[in-house]
């Protein structure tokens, strides 16, 4: 890494709080930063405090009427339309302000890269990839990923690859750029026949004039580290090389973990660490080293998210944490006060082996079939041979 990476963080991010027993609890962010600090990952790092995004910035991807609805929602109560006031997207105090700050965090990370002050930047509070132009969806009020990409397209970049490793399809970002050939959106997710939002099939290829810039790899329930990485390697690197992005934007949801309560993939913290290291390599190889990393889903709040995203922060900063590193006693003590009867892991590893056998063109497993479905749908549009494992 040529320049020091930028880490965007401020405790005010914790204000994006959907309340009660909602799965998207901001404690996951607090515990991540506490763990990263306890392990020395953030030692000497000057954290970037964001400003809230302005209306003009948010309206790059959202309708003004929707912003008005978000502002009014806390006074209007439940069922106010625009996807607000639902079980997934309950109304909460200062909802616009908290959501605008999340967008501002992702924009702050984007600005650091665009200004040449950093080659890499990360905001774990970002990654709200489901929000649509005129409505909230999937715990997401404003789509910070899409706003950041839109801003980057007007500030020195005209080829951006967006790679989404959340268990759910990155539908909001795909929708925002479906007709834009400057943005390659790649989503690796659980098969939409088995998981919300029900989109993200290989046949979703991009709109007229942008065919091939929407890529979806839909994996069967139960897919673990080795098969996930095998499928990723068989599809994503070739597409990135063919597209030639100037910058890689990644949504790094960790709800792919085997303990996540909302989905059915079976990755481990070790698998997540392997993914981040591969993303770093691909940014260096295909995107001039430029990498904007955002958070996303993840609902095992104590055992999974803090460890996985500490690995993400460490990877972005080139301060990789040994998986066998014990969890600091002070962090364990604090986490234990949040859920006294919840067993905590002892190290930064799930003791899993993420090594995998490369795909060689075979169709022996459901994962191999998923790989071939995606390759046959999109590879020819990039001049690649779907049947040749070398492509």
TrEMBL record:
Pfam families recorded: Hist_deacetyl
GO biological process, any: acetoin catabolic process
CDD domains for this protein: HDAC_AcuC_like
GO MF assignments: histone deacetylase activity
Pathway in which this enzyme or protein is active: Ketone degradation; acetoin degradation
UniProtKB keywords: Acetoin catabolism
Family: Belongs to the histone deacetylase family.
Protein's name according to its UniProt entry: Acetoin utilization protein AcuC
Native source organism of the sequence: Saccharothrix carnea
């Amino acid at each position: 890494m040529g320049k020091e990476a930028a880490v965007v963080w401020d405790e005010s991010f914790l204000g994006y709080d959907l309340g009660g027993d909602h799965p998207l609890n901001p404690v996951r962010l607090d515990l991540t930063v506490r763990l990263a600090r306890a392990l020395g990952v953030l030692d000497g790092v000057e954290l970037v405090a964001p400003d809230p995004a302005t209306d003009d910035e948010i309206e790059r991807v959202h309708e003004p009427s929707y912003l008005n609805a978000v502002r009014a929602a806390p006074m209007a109560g439940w069922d106010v339309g625009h996807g607000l006031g639902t079980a997934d997207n309950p109304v909460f105090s200062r909802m616009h302000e908290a959501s605008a700050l999340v967008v501002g965090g992702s924009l702050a990370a984007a600005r650091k890269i665009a200004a040449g002050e950093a080659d890499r930047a990360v905001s774990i509070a970002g990654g709200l990839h489901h929000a649509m132009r005129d409505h909230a969806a999937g715990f997401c009020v404003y789509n910070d990923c899409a706003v950041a990409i839109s801003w980057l397209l007007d500030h020195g970049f005209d080829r951006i690859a967006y790679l989404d490793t959340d268990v759910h399809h990155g539908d909001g970002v795909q929708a925002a750029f479906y007709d834009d050939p400057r943005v390659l959106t790649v989503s690796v997710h659980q098969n939409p026949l088995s998981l919300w939002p029900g989109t993200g099939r290989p046949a979703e290829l991009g709109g007229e004039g942008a065919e091939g810039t929407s890529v979806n790899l839909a994996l069967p329930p139960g897919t673990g580290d080795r098969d996930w990485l095998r499928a990723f390697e068989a599809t994503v690197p070739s597409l990135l090389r063919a597209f030639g992005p100037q910058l890689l934007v990644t949504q790094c949801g960790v709800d792919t973990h085997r303990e996540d309560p909302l989905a059915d993939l079976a990755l481990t913290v070790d698998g997540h660490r392997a993914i981040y290291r591969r993303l770093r390599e691909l940014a260096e190889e295909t995107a001039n080293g430029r990498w904007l990393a955002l958070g996303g889903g993840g609902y095992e709040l104590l055992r999974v998210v803090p460890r996985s995203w500490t690995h993400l922060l460490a990877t972005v900063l080139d301060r990789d944490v040994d998986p066998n590193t014990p969890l600091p006693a002070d962090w364990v003590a604090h986490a234990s006060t949040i859920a006294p009867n919840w067993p905590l892991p002892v190290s930064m590893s799930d003791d899993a082996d993420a090594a995998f056998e490369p795909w060689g063109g075979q169709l022996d497993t459901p994962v191999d079939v998923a790989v071939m479905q995606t390759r046959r749908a999109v590879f020819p549009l990039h001049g690649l041979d779907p049947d040749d494992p070398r492509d």
